[in-house]
Amino acid sequence: MKKTFGLGPSGTLMGEGTPKICIPIVAETVEEIRKKAEEISLLPAEVVEWRADFYEDIFVEGKLEEILSMLRVILKNQALLYTFRSADEGGHRMVEKETYYQLNERAAGSGLVDLIDVEAFMDEDSTAAHMRKLQELGVHTIASNHDFAATPVPEEMLRRLTRMQALGADVAKLAVMPGCPQDVLNLLQVTLTAYETLEIPVITMSMGKQGIVSRISGPLTGSALTFATAGEASAPGQIPVENMREILDIIL
Ligand SMILES: O=C1C[C@@](O)(C(=O)O)C[C@@H](O)[C@@H]1O
Q1: Does the predicted interface ipTM exceed a cut of 0.95?
Q2: Is residue 7 part of a domain?
Q3: What spatial distance separates the first Cα and last Cα of the chain, rounded to whole Å?
Q4: Cα(151) to centroid of ligand 1, in Å?
Q5: pTM of the full predicted structure?
Q6: Which domain of life is it from (predicted)?
Q7: Which of 60, 145, 177, 247 has a C-alpha 20 to 30 A away from that of 151?
Q8: How many independent structural domains does the chain possess?
């Protein structure tokens, strides 16, 4: 039995049924974030990711809470995922582990977000305790790992996803970059295996153009959520949300 859970205001189940669609907000200023959120609130996506690493004032005291309060008001029916992606894993900014953990804890403590992305291997020894703390503050955690340079061998990809579950994550997510078609097929196979063997929902993607098939094949492999764009992409290979919805409707 999958450990599913309800997503945000709608309560739609993560890890069951149609893969959920998540649109990232990739913007630098409060005004841009507000405009993007208003646009996304009308689009067919169950989850909205705020990529806090793109926000110009993220390190200024009190600003994170200000943005989250604004987003919660605008995004009435969608679940909110808070993500600070470190430069080491393809994000916009460098961040010290202590600062990264503090920001995550402030986001969780605000009571305004539903999900928090935690980079599982930033400091593997402290990830489990950190995720537990976030969960105690009332959010679900998505443990994540990104390889923007290559696709590890299948055993290693499966090991990472399995390790995320062992660390106590509510969801395990892996994004890798393919160098050849076989890399994409390997990611798809690993996803199906992880879907069949792990208790928690799994999210995977093979990035770039070559990997696009992995973003639309959740109904086949069991990947529980896919990222799609409204304007700017947060990673290579994401497709517009309207196309994604149509494709998923056809495949399902
Ligand atoms: O982890 C992910 C997945 C992602 O990298 C993608 O490839 O769609 C996009 C990021 O915004 C998100 O945090």
Answers
A1: yes
A2: no
A3: 21
A4: 15
A5: 0.97
A6: Bacteria
A7: 247
A8: 1
9 domain residue, yes or no = no
Q: Is the minimum distance from the CB of 83 to ligand 1 under 6 angstroms?
A: yes
Q: Is residue 211 part of a domain?
A: yes
Distance 66 CA to ligand 1 centre (A): 24
In ligand 1, the atom with minimum distance to the C-alpha of 81 is 13
Assess whether the C-beta atom of 191 lies below 6 angstroms from ligand 1. no
CA-nearest residue, atom 2 of ligand 1: 175
d(CA 86, CA 100): 8
* Range(s) of the domain holding residue 81: 19-251
Assign residue 137 the CATH number of its domain: 3.20.20.70
Q: Is a pLDDT exceeding 90 seen at residue 1?
A: no
β-sheet bridge partners, residue 227: 22
Write the single-letter amino acid at 85: R
Q: Is residue 77 part of a domain?
A: yes
